[in-house]
Predict the 3D structure of the following.
Amino acid sequence: MKDIFKSSLLYDFYGELLTEHQKEIYEDFILNDLSLGEIAQDRGISRQGVHDLVKRCDKRFTKTKEDVAEICKLADEPDNQCNVNRIKQIAQHILENY
């Protein structure tokens, strides 16, 4: 139950980073409580494919959360050009990869 709650919270914050296809499958699994097999059958893909997609989404959400936390930490430090450059680098990484 704890993992589903955590996953649904992460989805609320970072769900817009997913494609429509990824959103639908993730929502079916996390929010609609469908099994991997049910989703696979409905979508015409393998159960393993659904499992892998859900795990990739969780990993993406976790990485993005870590990146945002790093940006916040850098923003709280005294102003210097290194921090600004690092913040820009992290933000660019988020934009390019999601």
Notes: The mean pLDDT is 88. The chain has five helices and no strands. Helices lie at 2-14, 20-31, 36-43, 47-76, 81-97.
